[in-house]
Input
Amino acid sequence: NAGVMQNPRHLVRRRGQEARLRCSPMKGHSHVYWYRQLPEEGLKFMVYLQKENIIDESGMPKERFSAEFPKEGPSILRIQQVVRGDSAAYFCASSPGLAPSTDTQYFGPGTRLTVL
Amino acid sequence: QKEVEQDPGPLSVPEGAIVSLNCTYSNSAFQYFMWYRQYSRKGPELLMYTYSSGNKEDGRFTAQVDKSSKYISLFIRDSQPSDSATYLCALIKAAGNKLTFGGGTRVLVKP
Output
């Protein structure tokens, strides 16, 4: 059973460009979470999605960041007009969605975004 | 003040020693407690999951929760060089959905 897959693993963008990060959850999982790990900081929650729904986006920056989880295909985290402060590791996690408080969240390997 | 505090380390121990890690939290709404291990440039991997005060053991790992003191611990017995990693505590509030992480403790087990 394949785990959570993220691509690309490494992404380099220049300031002002767009970054698109993809996450394919584990088979049978319908819930996806995105977390960001800034250098020398812990993991911080960004957004929680089910298929075609954003459930909790309380950790998302108000501007430039968006996320979706379409009916078909991977979840996408999109960062428009990237700035150097967006350089971080972005992790996706998935869970089966049986009970969000108690479901285990399984993490992918992360996408490391570098903004030049 | 951070919701979850964790000593960043590094914590250096000789092979075979017991590794003792802990986190404190300030909000009694946290009801579910996890420990993740993260190797350098990898994603976090779940080690232990507990939800009640007391001890839970799994192989060389023991997780301990004291809700009255808002204090959680992870013990690793017979530590191996392969245990060298960053250990993250993660908490969820009742009826919540997002993990709140501590900053992580870097552990180095020397052969």
